[in-house]
Structure formats: structure tokens, C-alpha cells
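Students often ask why inverse folding is considered easier than folding. One informal answer: many sequences map to the same fold, so there is more than one right answer. In these notes we will look at a single instance of the problem. The structure comes first.
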């Protein structure tokens, strides 16, 4: 009993002593800003005597916890800025607040002082990248402004390992390290951005203006506290935060689209300030861009099979066909002209309130709204079915099919005549995000949390298509397979009187995705190995997502009223300056204004055009993680952790018979759980040289449209399209090694290799039915269904170099270079061709073998100029039923130029010239010379004024 009492007393004394010891500790919290009062991310803050340190976040904030009472010296180091030291006194149970401003430093070379101009933004990016434990690329907003990029997509393509797919000349879909857009994650302030795309998870990067974003962070090796659905990588877009003092910035500009000779109008502003007591801060910003442009397009579909009707029927009355051996030829040819007006608007209001040094809450909001108005004029020629072709109807010359009968159609695409559509197809796309969060320091426990609601939608109302068609003999010229063409054998056959009414349709499309996100993170100090700072971090996240697509389609009968194309109002759109070549004469089409003015009533619904498209999917993800980062030695850091994600999906689609008969809805549920460990090592060879290694596990969830349990039998096309609710998520085990050297004058030399072992990747299987499982007489129909492949692998290497060439003499010391190169090799297993055999030596779709960025810049105190290039190699975009049908995205080389002149410290003039090379978007089928699509956009020139005012 006495021993028990002694033990309790001893325990109480130890506890009281421990409490007394803890009571002698306090915290240090503060912000680091540059000379303009703008927060700097990635600054290193150290108390050297205690081996304690921290790195500022994207808001320039840091905190040091569990500091013994006393007076210490804080040392702040930041690449490109002079080291700063500040004394700080820590008192018991209190948090000491500090606010520190950094000054840029000059570099002395051979006794000459060299000042780097325009490097502040580059310093912010490289410091963050250097101090991150994982492998990242960081680009700040000011650095974005040094390139002529109007939207985030065009800005992101400058980053090593990233390729962008373009739409109407603007970068839209992001490919990271060769992995297709739906396999990558795009977040806004850490919350996943919803997608307005109907059939995939792609985030349209051209929706967000570049000047609305403060920082772009690309994580190529994710940590356990990040969402795991980032197979290729994660792009986090960080919006602007409240400044330390008053800031006002405005841009006003104009320009010219050379393809249409129409003006560009753009403008933006931001204003922010902080209250006198420093507690409340705000940042308001808006952006507007109006561009009237277009594109010139040629498309072709190739085949190597040809049959004709012998004039004899078999005993069952079916036509007997004869096959002719021919070289590959275009069975369908299209010439298109697009007229596009794209208006991009964005609004943002961000604010924060500091209750005290330990507790801050913030609100971040952004609303992006893009109107995309489009008219399309399409001339299409397609070979008739074999039973409609007889021996005298075609000509084969040296194996080339040079003449055959074709159905030729002229189509006008537009919209109704109202204040929104303006006789054009209007794609109204919006993305909005509202986030409320907080950061707290409770003793030595750091807590941050965030709740957000996000919504993306795309609405296309009263979209009209008018088609007139005829049949005549065409001359098929494939002598230049890069630029094929079909023309009428007899020009009189192509008279407008011969084009008869085919159809007029009007459709409405609506897609929306809503996300509710909530997460909380906890962090405690930890020093397991006694080598200095470390932490244990754990947290949880919930993401509740709903995806809905609701389309309809109507057909109208105006044959008696407007029987031929000549009975409508037409415009001749042939243009000697057609960018694909002057030989392409597109001819006359119904005017978009005439089409928009039609009063269409009593339309007949066409269910086969939308029943398969409509669905509703609920996806709920619940996740938790734990991780720790520790110093194993003075030079070696490790981050190790585990993430668990549980996914539950409820998908509803349609069961369809004979294309248009809705038999009912099909709802299926599925769920799965993924456990994903990860390890990151960071070894500092010196203060400037870092070696990194990472082993991570990631996933990518199937596209919503692929999961929908729909069945669509298209008898007319002898095709069956199936969903697949049993699809598994694609997973990957990733290995990364990266070496980085940071130059004192703000620069970087880096190189590394990576390997991804991918399981269950998803591709579209193209096969053929062998029985009537899907209905009477469906044997032999083509089947299209998403399936899981067995596995795939990617090996890659990256190289990057950027620095000011200040070691050169004279004016050359003001030059700087920016280079990066990525090589990727991939292979995919388990892909089945249309004959049921496994294909060999197949690259994983959307893996670009070579990408390269290069820019040469010249910066002085007042003048800066930059010539920028971007190259991406050709790659397989879509697998066909066999090698002949595979579609490839062709190589691209973009060249851009921009220049800025500072009139004074606040006012500058800028000019940008984009797409100097007139690089087209091009797809080819099977082999490089066989064009499937080529689309030209011309050059774009913009210029204007920019005003910046800073007050600390």
C-alpha cells in the first residue's frame, strides 16, 4: 500500500514537473513579405540554436511551436533575397507575432554588381519548390504574366512534363507525364474543381483566366494529405489572398485575330487592403476577355476496304457484293469553317479575419463564366453503301480509288435569334467555388479546416442544325494524303438546286456537377530521431459529388416549305485565304441569320439522340490519413504516411431498345476502398543542391459516362454501345528520383527519372457480337464498351534549366533562359482488337514521347521581352479496332513573343503575339501522313496598359 502511494505521489510530481516544463514554452507566428508587401511563400524561417524551423505557406504565414521561454534570433533565408535576421522574445503560454519584410539582393560577379530584374516572381516559385518535401513545380502569377498566356491552360503548358490538348487554338485539357486528362487532378485552393464535361472528368483549363490565379503548384509525387485521384499528378490553383497593405492593379487592352480580322478586348483589375489593426483583409478581382475568331478545318476518314454491287442477288434476295483490293482512301471528307466568339468573365472576392495571432478564418470565392458562341459550316462527302455502287460508278487507278458516287451534304450550325444566342450555338459554361476555412494554433497543435461548395455547369440551348443533301459522283484526290480533297466530277451536279432538304433539328443540352467538400488537418510537433524539427499530421476529408446530364433533341419537317438549298438565304463562304489551302472551296450555305429567325414549332422528339447521353451519378468519397515528416540527420528528411479512401457510387442510366424506345432506368451501386502508402526522402547535398526520392500510390476513378449501366442498340449503324458499371478504378505505383540545384541568382538546374506501374487502365473496346444477346438480328454488330486493360507502364525522364545569364558581358548579362524537356516511354497490355486477339507493342493512349519548352528573355529595369516556344510530340489519342483505325494527335510547335515597357514604377505597356508558326491542330489515322483532321487558327496580337500600385 505504501509502495502504491509512493508511486502515485512520484507520478503526480513528474506530471506537475512536466506541466511546469510545458508551461515554460510558447510559440512564434508571423508573416514574411517582399519589398512591396506581398506575401512570399516558401521562405525558410529558423531558430538555429534550437534546430527548429518552418517554411511559409502560400499566404506567407509560418508558425514555430513549443519554443522554450527566452529570446532568440530568427533567420529568414529566401532565394534571390538578402538573408534577414530578427530578434524575438518568447513568453510562456503565449504566441509571439512577427511581421518581416525582405529586400532583393544583388549578386557580385568579378567585382561588378549585377541586379536581376523581374526575378521576384521566379524567386517565389523556386523557393516554394525547393522547400517542399515532395516533387513539385511551382509557377507564380507574376511569372505567368511574363508569357503571353490569357488562360491557365496556356500557362500550365510551360511547365516541365505537361502537355495540353487544344480547342479552337486555346489549351484546354491537361496531360501530366503522359497521362490523359481524366487521370489527373485539378484543384482550387486544395478542393477538387468539378467538371462541366458530359462524358468525362476533364476540367477545362481555358475556362479560368490566368490573371485570377496567384500560384500554380503541380505535384508530381503526391503526399498522403492530398487527394489520391491524381494518377499523373495534381495541379493546385491558388487564388489571390489579401495583401499586407493597399494594392491596386488594372489592365486594359485590345488586339486582333488575324483569321477573322476582328478585335480582341480584355481588361482586369484587383484591389485589396488590410484594416489599420491588421485583423481584416480583402482582395477583390475581376477579369474580362472578348475574342471574335474562328478556324479553318479539313477532316477525313480512311479505309482500306472497298466493295460494289455485282447487279446479282442471292437466293434470299440479298445483293451479292464483289471486293476490290485498293490502297487506303478517304471514304469520307469534310471541309469546315468555324466562326467563334468567346467571352470569358471571372470574379473573385477573398477575405480573411484574424481574431488573434492564433486564430484566423478566411473566405475565398470565385465565379467563372464563359460564353462560347459558334457557327459551323460543313461540307461533307461520304461514299455510298456498297449495294448502291455498281461497276461503272467507280474508277481505280494504280490501286487508288479516284472516283465513286457519294452523298454530299451542306450543313449550317447555329442558334436562335435572341440576345443570348445571337444566331449562334451558345455554350454557356460556368464554374463557381465558395470556400470557408480557418487556421488555428492551440498550444502546440496546429489545426486547419475548410468547407467548400463548388458547381460546374454547361448549358447549350436551342442549338440548330440545318442539312441539305444530294448524291453525285466525286473525284477523290488522295495524291497528297496530308491534304486530301473530294470535288464534284461534274460541277453542275453541285448546284444549290440539287441539294434537297434533309433535316432541321434543335437540341438542348445541360450538364452539371456539384461538389461539397470538407476536410480538417491536425499537426503536432515530433522529434523522433532527435535531429530537429518534425511533425505528425493526420486528418480526414469528405467529398460528396453529384453529376447530372439532361439532354433532348427535336426534329422538324420543313421539306415542303424549303425543298432545296436555293430556297433559303445563302452566303458563299469560299475564301482564297483558307488556311488549309486555296484549293479548298467550301461554297454556299444557308445563312446563320436565316436559320436563327425560323419559328420552329411542333417538333418531333428523337430519343435515339439523347437517351444514352442522359444519366445521374452520385459519388461519395471519404478519406483519412496519417503521416509524419522527420529529420533523420542534418541533411536527410523523410515523409512517410498512409492514406485510405472509400468510394461509393450510385449510377442511373437508361435501358434502350431499337435506339429510341425507353424500356426503363437501370440503377447500380458499387463501392471500393483503396489503401495507399507513400514515402518521400529529401537529401540536402548542400544548401543549394537537393536529391529527392518518392514512392507513392495513386488512383483514377472511371469517367461517369463509362460507369452508367446503359445499353443502346443502334440498328441503323449495326452498333451497340454499352456502359460498364463494373469498371475498376485505375491504380498506379509510382517511383520518382529527382536532383535539383538552385543558383544564388535565382535559377534552377534539375533532372530526374520516374516510373509508373499502372493497373486496370481503361480503354474503349471495339469488338463484334457473335450472337443475338442484345436483340434479334444483332449478331455481327459492332460493340463499343469501356473495359479495364490488364496493365501498363510508363518510364520517363525530366530535365529543367532556368537562370539569368549574368556571367556574360555587356547587354547579354540581362538575358535569361527557361528550358525543360520530358521524355516518356509507355506500353499497355490486355488491349483486345476487333478480332478478339490481344494487341502487342501498344503505347498507352495520350502518352507524349517528347515535350520541350524553351524561352529566351531580356530584362532591364524598364524593358523586358521574351520569345517562347512549346513542342509536344505526336502520340496515340484513341485506340481503334486495329492499328489502321488508331487515331494519333500530331506533334505541335508553338512560338510566341511578348514585350513590356515600364513607363514608370506603376505604369507599363505590353504587347503579345501568339502562334507565330500558325500551328494547326492535327490528327492522323494509323500513319503520320494520313490526315484525319487539320484545323488552323492563325495568329493573335494583343496589346495594352497595366497599372500597379503597392502600399505597405
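Output (designed amino acids):
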Amino acid at each position: 500500500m505504501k509502495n502504491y502511494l509512493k508511486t502515485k505521489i512520484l507520478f503526480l510530481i513528474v506530471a506537475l514537473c512536466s506541466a511546469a516544463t510545458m508551461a515554460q514554452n510558447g510559440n512564434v507566428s508571423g508573416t514574411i513579405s517582399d519589398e512591396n508587401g506581398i506575401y512570399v511563400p516558401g521562405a525558410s524561417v529558423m531558430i538555429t540554436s534550437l534546430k527548429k524551423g518552418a517554411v511559409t505557406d502560400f499566404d506567407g504565414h509560418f508558425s514555430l511551436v513549443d519554443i522554450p521561454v527566452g529570446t532568440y534570433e530568427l533567420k529568414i533565408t529566401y532565394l534571390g533575397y538578402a538573408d534577414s535576421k530578427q530578434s524575438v522574445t518568447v513568453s510562456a503560454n503565449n504566441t509571439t507575432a512577427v511581421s518581416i519584410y525582405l529586400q532583393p539582393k544583388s549578386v557580385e560577379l568579378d567585382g561588378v554588381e549585377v541586379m536581376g530584374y523581374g526575378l521576384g516572381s521566379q524567386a517565389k516559385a523556386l523557393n516554394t519548390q525547393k522547400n517542399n518535401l515532395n516533387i513539385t513545380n511551382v509557377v507564380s502569377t507574376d511569372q505567368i504574366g511574363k508569357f503571353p498566356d490569357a488562360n491557365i491552360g496556356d500557362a500550365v503548358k510551360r511547365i516541365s512534363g505537361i502537355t495540353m490538348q487544344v480547342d479552337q487554338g486555346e489549351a484546354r485539357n491537361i496531360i501530366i507525364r503522359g497521362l490523359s486528362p481524366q487521370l489527373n487532378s485539378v484543384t482550387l485552393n486544395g478542393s477538387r474543381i468539378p467538371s462541366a464535361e458530359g462524358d468525362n472528368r476533364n476540367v477545362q483549363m481555358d475556362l479560368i483566366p490566368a490573371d485570377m490565379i496567384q500560384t500554380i503548384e503541380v505535384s508530381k509525387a503526391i503526399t498522403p494529405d492530398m487527394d489520391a485521384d491524381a494518377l499523373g499528378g495534381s495541379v493546385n490553383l491558388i487564388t489571390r489572398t489579401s495583401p499586407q497593405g493597399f494594392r491596386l492593379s488594372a489592365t486594359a487592352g485590345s488586339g486582333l485575330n488575324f483569321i477573322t480580322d476582328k478585335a480582341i478586348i480584355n481588361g482586369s483589375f484587383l484591389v485589396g487592403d488590410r484594416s489599420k489593426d491588421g485583423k481584416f483583409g480583402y482582395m477583390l478581382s475581376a477579369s474580362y476577355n472578348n475574342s471574335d475568331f474562328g478556324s479553318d478545318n479539313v477532316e477525313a476518314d480512311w479505309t482500306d476496304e472497298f466493295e460494289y454491287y455485282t447487279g446479282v442477288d442471292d437466293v434470299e434476295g440479298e445483293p451479292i457484293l464483289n471486293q476490290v483490293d485498293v490502297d487506303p482512301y478517304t471514304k469520307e471528307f469534310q471541309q469546315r469553317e468555324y466562326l467563334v466568339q468567346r467571352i470569358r468573365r471571372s470574379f473573385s472576392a477573398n477575405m480573411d479575419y484574424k481574431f488573434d495571432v492564433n486564430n484566423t478564418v478566411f473566405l475565398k470565392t470565385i465565379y467563372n463564366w464563359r460564353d462560347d458562341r459558334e457557327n459551323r459550316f460543313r461540307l461533307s462527302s461520304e461514299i455510298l453503301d456498297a449495294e448502291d455502287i455498281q461497276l461503272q460508278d467507280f474508277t481505280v487507278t494504280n490501286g487508288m480509288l479516284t472516283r465513286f458516287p457519294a452523298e454530299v451534304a451542306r450543313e449550317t450550325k447555329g442558334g436562335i435569334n435572341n440576345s443570348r444566342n445571337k444566331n449562334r450555338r451558345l455554350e454557356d459554361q460556368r464554374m463557381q467555388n465558395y470556400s470557408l476555412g480557418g487556421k488555428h494554433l492551440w498550444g502546440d497543435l496546429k489545426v486547419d479546416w475548410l468547407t467548400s461548395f463548388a458547381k460546374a455547369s454547361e448549358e447549350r440551348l436551342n442549338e440548330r442544325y440545318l442539312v441539305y443533301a444530294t448524291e453525285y459522283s466525286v473525284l477523290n484526290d488522295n495524291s497528297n494524303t496530308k491534304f486530301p480533297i473530294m470535288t464534284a466530277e461534274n460541277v453542275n451536279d453541285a448546284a444549290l438546286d440539287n441539294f434537297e432538304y434533309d433535316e432541321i433539328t434543335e437540341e438542348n443540352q445541360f450538364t452539371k456537377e456539384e461538389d461539397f467538400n470538407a476536410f480538417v488537418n491536425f499537426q503536432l510537433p515530433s522529434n523522433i530521431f532527435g535531429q530537429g524539427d518534425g511533425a505528425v499530421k493526420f486528418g480526414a476529408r469528405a467529398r460528396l459529388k453529384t453529376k447530372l446530364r439532361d439532354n433532348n433533341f427535336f426534329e422538324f419537317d420543313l421539306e415542303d416549305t424549303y425543298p432545296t438549298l436555293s430556297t433559303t438565304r445563302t452566303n458563299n463562304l469560299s475564301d482564297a485565304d483558307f488556311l488549309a489551302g486555296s484549293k479548298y472551296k467550301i461554297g454556299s450555305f444557308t445563312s446563320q441569320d436565316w436559320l436563327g429567325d425560323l419559328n420552329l414549332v411542333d417538333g418531333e422528339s428523337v430519343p435515339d439522340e439523347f437517351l444514352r447521353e442522359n444519366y445521374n451519378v452520385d459519388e461519395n468519397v471519404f478519406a483519412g490519413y496519417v503521416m509524419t515528416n522527420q529529420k533523420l540527420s542534418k541533411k536527410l528528411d523523410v515523409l512517410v504516411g498512409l492514406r485510405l479512401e472509400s468510394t461509393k457510387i450510385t449510377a442511373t442510366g437508361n435501358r434502350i431498345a431499337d435506339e429510341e424506345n425507353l424500356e426503363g432506368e437501370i440503377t447500380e451501386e458499387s463501392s471500393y476502398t483503396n489503401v495507399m502508402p507513400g514515402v518521400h526522402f529529401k537529401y540536402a547535398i548542400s544548401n543549394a543542391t537537393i536529391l529527392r526520392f518518392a514512392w507513392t500510390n495513386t488512383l483514377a476513378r472511371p469517367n461517369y459516362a463509362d460507369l452508367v449501366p446503359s445499353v443502346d442498340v443502334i440498328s441503323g449503324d449495326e452498333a451497340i454501345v454499352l456502359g460498364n458499371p463494373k469498371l475498376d478504378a485505375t491504380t498506379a505505383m509510382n517511383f520518382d528520383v529527382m536532383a535539383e540545384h538552385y543558383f544564388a541568382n535565382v535559377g534552377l538546374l534539375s533532372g530526374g527519372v520516374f516510373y509508373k506501374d499502372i493497373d486496370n487502365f481503361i480503354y474503349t473496346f471495339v469488338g463484334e457480337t457473335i450472337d443475338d444477346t442484345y436483340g434479334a438480328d444483332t449478331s455481327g454488330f459492332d460493340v463499343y464498351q469501356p473495359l479495364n486493360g490488364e496493365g501498363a507502364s510508363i518510364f520517363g525522364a525530366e530535365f529543367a534549366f532556368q537562370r539569368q545569364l549574368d556571367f556574360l558581358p555587356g547587354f547579354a548579362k540581362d538575358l535569361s533562359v527557361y528550358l525543360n524537356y520530358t521524355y516518356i516511354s509507355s506500353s499497355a497490355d490486355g488491349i483486345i482488337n476487333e478480332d478478339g486477339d490481344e494487341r502487342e507493342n501498344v503505347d498507352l493512349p495520350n502518352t507524349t514521347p517528347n515535350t520541350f519548352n524553351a524561352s529566351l528573355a531580356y530584362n532591364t529595369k524598364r524593358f523586358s521581352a521574351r520569345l517562347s516556344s512549346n513542342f509536344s510530340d505526336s502520340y496515340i489519342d484513341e485506340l481503334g479496332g486495329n492499328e489502321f483505325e488508331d487515331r494519333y494527335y500530331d506533334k505541335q510547335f508553338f512560338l510566341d513573343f511578348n514585350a513590356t515597357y515600364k513607363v514608370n514604377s506603376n505604369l507599363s505597356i505590353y504587347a503579345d503575339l501568339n502562334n507565330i508558326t500558325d500551328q494547326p491542330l492535327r490528327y492522323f489515322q494509323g500513319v503520320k501522313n494520313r490526315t484525319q483532321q487539320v484545323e488552323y487558327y492563325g495568329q493573335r496580337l494583343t496589346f495594352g496598359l497595366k497599372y500597379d500600385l503597392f502600399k505597405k
